[in-house]
Amino acid sequence: MKKKILSALLCTAMLAAVVAGCGSKQAEAPAEAPAEEAPAEAPAEDAGDDAEAPAKSGGRVFGYTCMDGTNPFFVALEGAIREVVESHGDTLISMDPGNDSNTQIDQIEDLISRGVEIMFVNPVDADGIIPALDALKDADIPMFGFDTQVGDMSYLVSYAGSDNYNAGYVCGEDLAKKVPEGGDILVLDSPTMQSVTDRTDGFLKAIEDSGVTFNVVGQQDAQGNQQLGNEKATDLLTAHPDVVAIFGGNDPTALGAYAAADAAGVTPLIYGVDGSPDVKKLLEDTIMEGTGAQSPITIGKTIAETAYQWLDGEEVEAFIPIETFLITADNVGDYGVDGWQ
Do domains 7-162+296-323 and 164-295+328-334 have the same CATH topology? Predict the structure, then answer.
């Protein structure tokens, strides 16, 4: 079993995840913003005064909402969308609901009042966002989804997102190969996030397909959050200290579980989903075993370019899957640890 890293590195990763700002609060996010780094300078709410005016040269104004302003995945994704939008001379107004569905609805209504012409949508709650989608539809504002599906996909012109089921599946496959004797495992999921539900389903199906006997002895909702992931994992590890593995529905959750395991002095294999730089840095010499990697940069660029294709009168695909794959210590060198793939 791999050794634990120094406490200093752990603290750095934990602190970075807390302070990292989501793209939805950025005013000038770079296209390849590193995970867990400091957020872009101005929060979305403060960008409103400048964003209410059209972009330079009479450009259009687009809206953006993501579920979680603290997840560095969205820093990179928003930056990729922003790069495409601004390259066309247009303006992107980004909002961060802080994982609160009611706040997201209010913010979308605010964006409608500002006259956005296109809306990029990532829901806090797949069904809870429907009233906001109705408002956008009534305002005749086309919607383009990314990363997490909404409850009724007919609202969207197009959607681009990772193959989340496969992202979890490849983690389960890897676990079964590395622990062929099976054992007890913990799962940290998030039932309101369809993307995390898909990943969890894929992970559980992979271990079922493997024929290896694994028992889920604890499963908790960590809401895709590192701090909550730490708290939930701490509670579960207290009750089940001998588990052989922990699956986190995203990398922040997995980092929280990693911190909990480190503090408890136990060494389960830990898997996450994202392929974030902070998790990739831990793969070679710790109990962080793997991450079902996705590319927020590819997702962001793809959905933004699709929106412009549609505006130009081209036919676009309703659903655009983005490849996911496993990153472990064996291949992390192929992807690097300083940024997103």
Answer: yes
Assigned superfamily of 164-295+328-334: Response regulator (3.40.50.2300)
Q: What are phi and psi of 163, to 5 degrees?
A: -75, 85
- Domain parsing of the chain, residue ranges: 7-162+296-323, 164-295+328-334
DSSP 25-43: G-SS--TTPPTTSPPPSS-
Percent of residues, the chain, with pLDDT higher than 90: 79
The DSSP call for residue 179 is -
Supply the pLDDT for residue 58. Answer: 62
- HSE on the CB side for 27, CA within 13 Å? 12
Specify the pTM.
0.75
State how far the Cα of 70 lies from the Cα of 98, in Å rounded to an integer. 8
Residue 38: CB atoms within 10 Å? 12
DSSP 52-79: TSPPGGG--EEEEE-S-TT-HHHHHHHH
CATH fold of 7-162+296-323 reads Rossmann fold (3.40.50)
- The confidence band for 7, taking pLDDT boundaries of 50, 70 and 90, is very low
Higher per-residue confidence, 17 vs 67: 67
